Amino acid sequence: MPENCEATITLTGDLHARPAGALSVAAAQFSSAVQLAVGGGAEVDAKSVLSVMQLGASSGQEVTVRAVGPDAQEAVDTLIGILSEASKVGD
Amino acid sequence: MAARVGIVLVSHSAALAEGTAELAGQVGGGTVTIATAGGTDDGRLGTSIEKVSSAIRRADTGAGVVILPDLGSSVLTVRTLLADEPDDLPGPLEVADAPFVEGAVAAAVTAAAGGSLKAVLDAAQEARNARKL
User: Fold this and answer.
1) pTM, whole model, 2 decimals?
2) Considering CB atoms only, which of A24, A29, A54 is closest to B109?
3) What domains, with CATH codes, occur in chain B?
4) Shortest Cα distance, chain B CAs vs residue A7, angstroms
5) What is the DSSP-derived secondary structure letter of residue B127?
6) Are strands A62-69 and A33-38 parallel, antiparallel or unpaired?
7) Which fold has domain A17-86?
């Protein structure tokens, strides 16, 4: 039975292009569907880097990672980890 | 590590091709081979069949190559090359009908994630629908 997992993190910096790329590369390693949303807004496919960039997530905003599938928990943990690091990296 | 799909950026401008390759390469995390074919053989604005051919050979690491032309005659140059000498080139090859910068970034990320040739082509072409605002 597929898991459905979700976690939220508050960004301490803006989500720039390179961390957006890292998120999408990481999300693509999981068979679960992985979605991102900013501040309770519309969800986008984390595996699509252009969609992730289009979120325009910036410092102080809450980003929610939601995954549905056999490796959902691992996917959420991995992406939250990248988001917590991403804010410290430059563009 | 399994071979990644390679990417060739074909632009009328060498600077545009190289800058786009730099951006896409960094967003993709630096694990994808992105080769450029920008400008004419004598360094003017334009495209060169020889440069495209050479870039395809450099980009190929065994999983195929997606070629992104920028505008107009760069598409024609790529098509002419593929029509004339497909046996001399590594393959399989796909030409993406995609916006140059967005397509390159999306293709690089999908290739970095280990995506198939079709997945990389689709990622580039889906960039046609990407909104900036």
Assistant:
1) 0.94
2) A24
3) 6-65+75-129 (3.40.50.510)
4) 23
5) G
6) antiparallel
7) Histidine-containing Protein; Chain: A; (3.30.1340)
